[in-house]
Design a protein that fits this description.
Elements (H helix, E strand, L loop, with lengths): L5 E6 L4 E8 L4 E8 L1 H4 L7 H23 L6 E9 L3 H18 L3 E5 H12 L7 E6 L4 E6 L5 E7 L4 H11 L6 H9 L20 E2 L2 H12 L13 H30 L3 E5 L6 H14 L2 E4 L14 H7 L20
Parallel strand pairs: 1-4, 4-5, 6-10, 8-9, 10-11
Antiparallel strand pairs: 1-2, 2-3, 6-7, 7-8
Helix pairs in contact: 2-3, 5-6, 5-7, 5-8, 6-8, 8-9
Length: 345
């Protein structure tokens, strides 16, 4: 009996080196991720040069392990997919170079994948039925973007943050509170013991008609609340365990309030009854609870990427199958498109 066709997907857009083998029925036969958290931890964020060098060391072992775990060989592959945008230029180039080499040597189609679109397609991978058209929210360390998703491959950017992304705001707040990097999971963990109403943090643009986000104000508010204002006569209260928990819970609640409000606003604006959510912050448990509440209250079908597909990974490169169906094959001179994606209204 013939086995389904398989493709190899490669992801190296930021600080995760990943490879996955996915068949044409969207079954993930293997997904391997080499994380760099420890390398960047002492800097409190990703250092691009360190990330690029780590990708160079990791890329071949990760691809080899993905093939081994899938019990497939290079000659079994039908195509090579690679994330080419957005992200760090050096990191993206490592993955693209590996993908181009394999496509050339194996004489297989090369598929260029948009990393952000793949985060949204991860929702379709677990859905039992078609979820598009939908409103899509990608919320991560670099992006907090809203999309009008007309189909599995048609995504129009309709809103974004004008400064910090939600994940970045979590990381910076964690550093202020003395919590480890990456900050999001640690803020969420200590917030479980805190009071979300203990502090009133700003919820920027929550009632604004624009589909825009801003998290720089809440970040500044956290600094002043936790560490005191420059030149103030009174010293800030000590950061006890309970105070850190209350600050974390209140900060998390404010960010989640804004995310939920903008998802609802976008769904109403575009007349969508389906919402898909992906990206690292989609793993936040409080956010997931509030999305469930939104679904029950407003009748919007919410699909959240599974935990394994929230943070950067190559399995979501399964969107390449959709691109292949459309004949969207990249030339070998395809280049990367680095940077952050921002909506210009």
């Amino acid at each position: 009996m013939n086995q389904p066709e398989v493709l190899l997907a490669i992801e190296s857009s930021c600080d995760e080196t990943a490879a996955a083998v996915i068949d044409c029925d969207l079954n993930v036969l293997s997904s391997v991720i080499a994380t760099q958290d420890e390398l960047h931890q002492r800097f409190g964020g990703v250092v691009p040069e360190i990330a690029s060098r780590a990708h160079l060391s990791n890329i071949l072992p990760v691809i080899d392990e993905a093939l081994r775990k899938s019990e497939r060989k290079l000659e079994d592959l039908s195509a090579i997919a690679v994330m080419t945008q957005p992200g760090l230029v050096g990191s993206l180039l490592v993955g693209l170079t590996a993908a181009k080499t394999l496509a050339l040597v194996l004489n297989k189609p090369l598929v260029a994948v948009n990393h952000i679109h793949a985060h949204l397609y991860a929702c379709q991978m677990i859905a039992e039925e078609e979820i598009f058209p939908a409103v899509g929210l990608v919320v991560s360390g670099g992006h907090t973007n809203l999309y009008d998703c007309r189909s599995t491959t048609e995504y129009e950017l309709v809103g974004s943050t004008i400064d910090d992304a939600a994940g970045e705001a979590f990381d910076k707040a964690a550093a202020m509170l003395g919590l480890p990097y990456p900050g999001g999971p640690h803020i969420a963990r200590v917030a479980q013991q805190g009071n979300p109403k203990a502090f009133r943090f700003p919820r920027t643009f929550i009632k604004d008609e624009r589909l825009a986000f801003s998290f720089s104000g809440i970040k500044t508010s956290m600094r002043y609340t936790a560490l005191g204002q420059p030149g103030a006569r009174e010293e800030p209260l000590p950061l006890t365990e309970q105070r850190i928990a209350d600050l974390s819970a209140s900060y998390q609640e404010a960010i989640v309030d804004v995310l939920i409000a903008k998802c609802h606003q976008a769904a109403k604006k575009f007349g969508r009854k389906s919402l898909c959510v992906g990206g690292g912050v989609a793993a936040n448990q409080r956010f997931r609870e509030r999305l469930d509440e939104l679904q029950e209250r407003e009748g919007i079908r919410v699909t959240i990427a599974p935990m394994s597909l929230c943070t950067d990974n190559a399995a979501m490169g399964a969107i390449a199958w959709e691109l292949l169906k459309q004949g969207d094959i990249a030339d070998l001179d395809v280049d990367v498109t680095p940077g952050l994606v921002r909506h210009r209204s």
